[in-house]
Design a protein that fits this description.
This is DUF6074 family protein. InterPro entries: DUF6074. Pfam families: DUF6074. With about 80 residues, this protein is mainly α. The protein has a domain of about 55 residues. The protein contains 3 helices and no strands. The longest helix has 27 residues. It is elongated.
Length: about 80
């Protein structure tokens, strides 16, 4: 057996996950939002690694998720402004 690389379905493409995180982050501000994101990111990172995803790839996944969540928050804010 050789070294196998585990590839998970990209977090940033999981619409329920993205919209759920965006919804919660949109309802929080400041330190409360920061704490929520840190805990969420830590949990997701640990889950990916436990499922066999390499550390660097898992970190990239969580980083990509954050960018998509922030983009969704910006879109939601622009839509709300009209």
């Amino acid at each position: 057996m050789g070294n196998a690389e585990v590839r998970a379905f990209p977090l940033h493409r999981q619409r329920k996950l993205v919209s759920g995180i965006a919804r919660v982050l949109g309802s929080k501000q400041g330190e409360e939002a920061t704490l929520f994101w840190r805990e969420t990111a830590k949990s997701l990172l640990q889950r990916l690694i436990a499922n066999g995803v390499q550390q660097a790839a898992a970190e990239d996944e969580v980083r990509a998720l954050l960018h998509v969540v922030l983009s969704e928050l910006e879109t939601d804010a622009a839509t709300a402004r009209g």
